[in-house]
Amino acid sequence: MKDYIRLNSTISQPSLYPYLEPGGEKFCLKLSLDSQANLPKGKAFFPFSVIDKSQPLARIVKAQFVTDAGSKTKEVFVLLQHDEYLFSKDGLWPFSNQQIDKCWQRAFSLYSDKAQEHDLVTFSDQIDKKGQLASFQPLFFCNIKEAFFHPQCPTCGSFLYQCYDDNLLNSLGLQPYSSSLKRYLFCPSCMALVGQSDFYVYELDGSDPDTVKDRWDLVREFNGLSDQKDPSGDFPCLRCSDYQQCYGPKGPATSRIVPVCFYPFYMFIFGAMTINAPDFLALVSGASFSELESRLSQNKELGRVNHVRELVARTSPVSPVSFGPYFLFDSDERYFLEVLYLKLSFLGGLFHDVSCWLDVFKSPDLGLSLDRVWVRFPDQSGLLPFMWNFKVRLIDIGGGIIDDATVPKLPPTYGLHFMGLVWFYGLLVNGKQDVSMVYKALSQVLEGKSSDTSGNGDAKDPESSLLSGAFVAENIFWNPEQWQETSFPEDWTRLWKSSLDLGWSFLTASMKGGDWSNDEFWSKLQALRKEVKSCLFVQASAGEEIVRVAKGITEIASDEKGPEVDPKVDNGAISQILLNISTEWRKGFEVEKDIEATGRDVVDQKDEDELEKTVAISAEMIRGQDQVEEVMEDEDEFHETVILSPGDFKGDLKDDAPMSRPGGKESLDQTVVLSGLGSTKTSDVPVAASDEEDDAMDETVIISLNRSNVKD
Q1: What pLDDT shows up at residue 647?
Q2: Are 247 and 223 contacting, i.e. CB atoms less than 8 angstroms apart?
Q3: For helices 302-314 and 289-298, what crossing angle results, to 10°?
Q4: Residues with Cβ within 8 Å of residue 111, at least 6 apart in sequence
Q5: Closest Cα to residue 644, out of 582, 568, 692, 588?
Q6: Can you tell me the distance from the alpha carbon of 309 to that of 315, in angstroms, rounded to the nearest whole number?
């Protein structure tokens, strides 16, 4: 033991203090104080803004890098190791301090490989000579003077360190470091000089002998320090005017001094995120800021409430980053496709971020959590709606700490199961249907699947169950009851089913095991996103809407002027002509390869002239030259010109298309205009005609291709 004491009497460990109060340096890390915290009576409170403390191994604290003049240069999330881990000892999962150290090292390796992508910030003192993550010295803070310091031995004034030696701990009746979750601070100098030292823990429990002290005992014993015991001047209380008051009889030292990290701690720094993933999913589904804030306040999620409030301030009309709307089509039926596309993009971003972790998350206690997923909205340029520009990041420590030698090798299915649950959460949880209802519906499908098998052992296809009840398409919205009467087109329903199928593939793989290909799944997801985006911006898909409008043309023409037209002849001819036109338009229309990259604001197109380009079709063209005489008793009695506007579509018709031009001396009794955007309306202004023809045009009818305006 004496050899051990001599060897460890000169323990050294990096300090975070120089980065918090750098003195002559130009930049420092400033932990954000919680402005809502009030000084309580009794024990000291943790004064910093905690964004999330639900992780078993760490908590997230808000911070900034600031200049020597106090200007903020970068907002960050600081992931600090917990003093008390948020899981209990379990004989089935033998966690230990040593394994948790390995967990931090593995996380450091994974994050370092993608440091730029995760916006990881590291300090030189964090990395040891072997290139591994180093832990910082224990750190305390005075709430009154806002001063940081390292805890010192009340007996000799030397810094306190963590004891890692199992033999020493066992000899004193304490739990070993390597095979338990107990950690102890002690003074190596006192052990070297007198062969004994007090041992301190963050929180006492029933397993601690009477000789062990807790953090409040240590704070009270700081009273024993003096200038003689602190020749380096590192203990700030000795130079504080409140020293006698704090450490006098019934002094308030324990209500003013608090550990930032009682034990040596690991730390990661990431670029700050904007909003928590569940809150983002609520907003993109159509929840209002006020409703979301109310829900979070009721659940005491104060850290997340602050982020919602900051987002409201950031996007307010007076904010310098508020340039446009949140969505493209929130007042349009296509909002369904937009929400689906954004949610698939979120889920894809999450999958991309955690795919390298899926095979290491095996323990339920240290598994993945949606609450540890965050979304960042970068500064907006005004070229895209706000919700169209975001990044998804997992900020977590966990998984991969179970050695193969500790327990039998585990199947890598937990990560897939997590992704399946998150998938259905993202698509189906809303203001009326919480996650427990979604999970109940999933369980019913799973039970039906497992109880009904075919002769070859394959499970029953659950597709029919995944298109009803909790899985109906309107549940993608925060207020699904507003969409219950909406009948979505068949193509949209197919896209919805494909989205659910991708989530189902995760659950199926997690239950059956076997081979799973991240690349194959990613390829399917990208193909689906591309198809959803194409459908979103190509409004008249495959001429479906044009055929509907063609029927309306016949009805309008028949009602306004002229004899009845045989629908068997007219509808078929109109449909074929318009389908051909649709094909030409679609050939000329190229969907942007990446709307996020190009920044094209599709909303601005709605403000452009509705009749950007017109194409005239005469009645003879629609009916066919060989059918005109059969349909019309007198050619002069019924003249009709149909003018089609492609609106957003940018393709041109072929030069040799058999089109007639409006104009000439023939009278134009009625003009019907189909616009790619806009509302059904009647215009008194003739379209594509000269002044000489004004008198010849009795009426112009404009029919929109907007799905909300076209009825069967």
Answers
A1: 41
A2: yes
A3: 160
A4: 118, 120, 268
A5: 582
A6: 10
Q: Would you say residue 87 has pLDDT above 70? A: yes
pLDDT at 19 over 80: yes
Between CA 521 and CA 501 the distance in angstroms is: 11
Mean pLDDT of all residues in the chain?
A: 74
Q: Is residue 377 within 8 Å of residue 390, measured between CB atoms?
A: yes
E strands, 383-507, in order: 391-394
Q: What percent of the chain has a predicted confidence (pLDDT) above 70? A: 63
Instruction: Please compute the mean of the pLDDT values over residues 545-574 and round it to a whole number.
Output: 46
Q: Packing angle between helix 277-285 and helix 289-298, nearest 10 degrees?
A: 140
Interval 117-169: pLDDT, tens: 778 999 999 999 889 999 999 999 998 888 999 999 999 999 999 999 999 99
In angstroms, the Cα distances linking 675 to 549, 583, 708 are 11, 16, 13
b/e map of 385-420 (b: 16 or more CB within 10 Å)? bbbbbbbbbbbbbbbbbbeeeeeeeeeebbbbbbbb
Bridging pattern class, strands 139-142 and 50-52: unpaired
Helix (H) or strand (E) holding 167: helix 166-171
- Could you report the per-residue pLDDT of 488-517, keeping only the tens digit for each? 899 999 999 999 999 999 998 888 766 788
First to last CA, the chain: 90
- CA 349/CA 391 separation, integer angstroms: 7
Classify residue 13 by burial, with Cβ atoms within 10 Å: 0-12, 13-18, 19+.
middle
- 0.90 exceeded by pTM: no
Q: Which two structure tokens, joined as six digits, stand for 349?
A: 């971003």
* Residue recorded with tokens 């058999």: 658
Contact 562, 638 (CB under 8 A): yes
Q: What backbone torsions phi and psi does residue 445 show, to the nearest 5 degrees?
A: -65, -45
Helix boundaries (H) for 114-165: 115-118
CA dihedral angle for residue 657, residue 662, residue 665, residue 666, rounded to 10 degrees: 80
SS in 3 state form for 601-627?
A: CCHHHHCCCCCCCCEEEEHHHHHCCCC
Is residue 591 within 8 A of residue 534, CB to CB? The reply is: yes
Q: Which two tokens stand for residue 197?
A: 């030292």
